[in-house]
Write a structure and sequence with these properties.
31% strand; 8-stranded mixed β-sheet; alpha/beta; Rossmann fold; 7-stranded mixed β-sheet; Immunoglobulin-like; 2 domains; single chain; 6 helices
């Protein structure tokens, strides 16, 4: 360590997960070339890291908000580049960080010259960024009510707060806790509480109970509940708004317009069949990960009509979000099909957002970008798609749009 070199994280080394920080270094030699690094472990102990080469100014300072990376994990002026460009030491690894009470710790360091990623020690200066998922005053309560279980996050204060149901394909508290930090009461539940191989069908009643539970919370205001969902959770969110009451606003992110994976039951009968698929159309790639997109059936064909969610029956407002480079399935086509169907019915209760060059896994911003990972239903590595910079920019834009959408649609009746 060099006593004259300082690595600063501003405005504070402790922040929320979805907040940007300013990374600055001073005390270097004029025009000194340095390597900036970030390193962290996820909840499963997998190491993620990034590095980029910078040149100090004549005053011996590097400011990631101002200065371009010359080469490395990214190039150009990217203030949060060291965070979103972190990659695992092993291929096809998703960054798992789901428990809200555990802060994400990232070690930043600055090294003289062009340092190799596997070099240990030799840092001129270091600083640790504590990125919290849950803000001070937000409560976290594990809920087991009726047939469903989940985690409820409540902002500080008496409320009333807009209520949001977060449908995650597999259990994660990240998105729910970050929404609660913004003043929403959020209940997060998993679409799958068992291994998919053990599931014969899904019951919409289970998710309806969660909506009703939220409605009954004394701190929840308004008449309707918001639902946020991505991937398989997307068609569950659509189904809740179409078959049940109480849902006022739905955010659908890179989902399907039809029921996928398993038959959907409601009130002891099947209400939606399964969208057809053909695993022989999976496309293998040299990386060992497959492209799923072309194996998923077309909801517009006659044989798949029984799987299509009847969103024209819904009274909710929809925010449909699709990534053009989604390689899991054709989210853009699904979104456009739903928009056309609603227009034919004279409906205006929706808006669409499409992100060019973004991939399937749109998440709250500033986590490591994931191009490929293990598919939870196929149990094999797949490509999610997207170009890193465009994908991260989409996440930043979408996160603010989700907040505004829910605030507009869920607080108007308070």
């Amino acid at each position: 360590m060099s006593p004259q070199v300082r690595l600063m994280l501003l405005p504070s080394a402790r922040c929320l997960f979805d907040e940007p920080i300013q990374v600055k270094v001073d005390g270097l030699r004029p025009r000194q070339v340095v390597t900036m690094r970030a390193k962290a472990k996820d909840e499963r102990g997998v190491v993620f890291q990034s590095s980029a080469i910078y040149r100090a100014d004549m005053g011996g300072a590097v400011d990631l908000q101002r200065d371009p990376a010359l080469c490395g994990s990214y190039v150009g002026v990217e203030p949060m580049g060291l965070l979103w460009s972190m990659k695992a030491d092993m291929p096809h690894k998703y960054f798992h960080w789901s428990l809200a009470l555990n802060p994400h710790m990232v070690k930043f360091s600055v090294h003289d010259g062009v340092a190799e990623d596997d070099e240990e020690g030799g840092a001129l200066a270091e600083a640790t960024n504590e990125r919290c998922l849950i803000a001070d005053g937000v409560s976290r309560v594990v809920v087991k009510q009726g047939t469903f279980s989940g985690v409820l996050f409540t902002p500080p204060g008496e409320g009333p707060f807009p209520g949001v149901l977060d449908l995650c394909t597999f259990m994660s508290e990240k998105r729910a806790s970050l929404l609660a930090n913004k003043g929403f009461m959020v209940l997060t539940i998993a679409v799958f509480n068992d291994k998919p191989v053990n599931i014969k069908h899904l019951n919409l009643d289970y998710f309806e109970e969660a909506v009703q539970f939220l409605q009954q919370q004394p701190k929840v205001g308004g008449k309707g509940i918001g639902v946020i969902s991505r991937s398989k959770g997307g068609d569950i969110g659509l189904s809740l708004s179409s078959f049940t009451s109480g849902v006022e606003a739905v955010v659908w992110i890179n989902g399907c317009s039809a029921n996928i994976g398993f038959p959907l039951h409601y009130k002891n009968r099947e209400v939606l069949s399964v969208l057809g698929s053909n695993v022989s159309k999976l496309l293998p790639t040299p990386s060992g990960a497959s492209i799923v997109k072309f194996a998923v059936g077309d909801p517009e064909t006659k044989e798949n009509q029984g799987s299509v969610v009847p969103i024209e029956k819904a009274k909710a407002h929809f925010l449909f979000v699709a990534s053009e480079d989604d390689l899991n399935w054709d989210s853009k086509a699904f979104m456009e099909g739903m928009a056309q169907r609603l227009k034919r019915e004279g409906k205006k209760n929706f808006e669409t957002v499409c992100y060019p060059r973004a991939g399937h896994l749109l998440e709250p911003p500033y986590g490591p970008y994931c191009h490929a990972g293990l598919h939870g239903m196929l149990r094999a590595p797949v490509l999610w798609g997207g170009e890193p910079k465009a994908h991260i920019d989409a996440e930043v834009h979408l996160w603010k749009k989700i907040e505004n959408f829910f605030r507009t649609r869920l607080t108007s009746k308070l």
